[in-house]
Every structure is written in C-alpha cells, then in structure tokens.
Amino acid sequence: MDRVLRVILFPVLVAQAISVRRSALRLPEPIGPRSGDVICKVDHPPLRILIAGDSSAAGVGVSTQAEALSGQLAAQLSCTHAVHWRLLATNGHRTADTLLRLQQEPTGRDVDVVVLALGVNDVTRLTSKTRFHMEQSALINLLKRKYRAKLIILCGVPPMARFPALPNPLAWFLGQHAARLDQVLARLAETQADVLHLPFQIDLSPDMAARDGYHPSARAYRLWAEVLCKTIRARVYPARRDASVEQATWNR
C-alpha cells in the first residue's frame, strides 16, 4: 500500500522536496574545538570518545560546540571520568561519506566508545536498505579494526515525519524511509558484538528543534547526551556483587 501511495504522490513529493530545499534556513556548524580533554577528580581510567556522523553530530542548530552533542556529552561524562574526546562530523554527510573520512584518518588513535549519528541524509538521498546495511557494516568493521573501538553506539534515525520543517506528504514519505533504515541499525546491533542501537527517545516538542525546524536545539542535544551518558556508564560499570567497588571494566 505504501508503495502505491508513493507512486501516486510522486509529483507532489518532488515539488515539495524542491520547495523545502530552496526555502530551508541553512544554519552553520557551531564554532569551538572539535577535540579536547576534560579532567575529572575521580580516580578512574580515562574514556576515549569519538563522535562521528552528520550535521546533528556536528552540532548544527546551536552556536557553540559546548552546547552541541560533543560538548554536552564530554561535560556529563566528566563527572565520573577524565574524557578524551574527538569530533569527526560534517553537515550533509551520509554513511558513505563518514566511512570514507574515517578511512582517510591517520591510524593509531584507539577509542573506547564511538557514537555514530547517521541516517538523515541517507534518508533524503533515498539510500536503499541494502546499501545502508552494507555501508554501516563496513563502518562498524572499520571502527573495530582501525580504531579498536570497545563500544559502538548507533544512534537511531529520528522520526522525520515529525520534523517541523517538513510538510506532508513529504514528511510522511521521509518518515517511512527513516523507520526502515532505523530497523537496519537495530538488526546490526543484534548481530554485532559490542554494538548498541540507541532508539531515538527525544520528544519532538517545539523547543526541541532549532530555528530551522530540522536540527536539534540546545535542550535536545542536552537530553540526547544524557541518554548517551547513561548508556555508556551502564557498560563501563556493569552490575557487580560488591556495589562498593567501582572499577571501570568493560562488559564484553
């Protein structure tokens, strides 16, 4: 039924896509450092974090990296760890673009946790489920082999049907494809060791969107970072018999 509707609505979808592209407010990537060290007084081993992906990973929608996902996550994790963090993200990047960028990065930079925020541009470019699965699999394998990642978190593709900047039926159409690609991420996490799928959990109320109605606001980035922080800590500190002993170990 969805396929029939897509065929029927094709002229409208094309017209709306062109209109949105022409009228969209284009926000810059935020200013600020894209790597750093956050020192913590607690005597725990440092966490090496890599954040990679598209405009949401890059922090589009806020003014500074301190308000963006990278800054918020590093600050929250620093309550329990010294954090060495690095951001490799670019507005407009698809999975294939991020894969190429990480392939070209120098070797020898091992990481403990990788946060991947990808999928929206794969949706808008109509990347097929088969290709998305292939490229995401290649990216995961690269991160394990080249970066020796101990934990890879696949952030869920957001429900694009609820993006304020998108009119219907275009929003419905992109939302359907976003759900299909998110299912690919969920299946990859089920079959890959040390890979987690983090479903999109943020309520898309008006204050969660930036001025363009497309990217996250500072509040949305903060809530996203909170969920990531809890997820990472749950893996760093697995349940132990002696709750008084908090030694950083990986639940492998």
What do these coordinates show?
With 252 residues, the chain is α/β, with parallel strands linked by helices. The protein has a single domain, classed as SGNH hydrolase (Rossmann fold, 3-Layer(aba) Sandwich), CATH 3.40.50. Helix content is 43%, strand content 13%. The protein is built from eight helices and six strands; from the N terminus they run αββααβαβααβαβα. The chain has helices spanning 2-23, 55-58, 69-77, 95-104, 120-124, 129-146, 170-191, 218-236, and strands at residues 35-38, 47-53, 83-89, 113-117, 151-155, 195-198. A six-stranded mixed beta sheet has the order 1-3-2-4-5-6, with helices on both faces. Strand 5 (151-155), helix 7 and strand 6 (195-198) form a beta-alpha-beta unit. Helix 3 (69-77) crosses helix 8, helix 4 (95-104) runs parallel beside helix 6 and helix 6 (129-146) packs across helix 7 (170-191). The longest helix has 22 residues, at 2-23. The protein is globular, with a radius of gyration of 19 Å. The termini are far apart. The model is unreliable at 239-252 (pLDDT under 50).
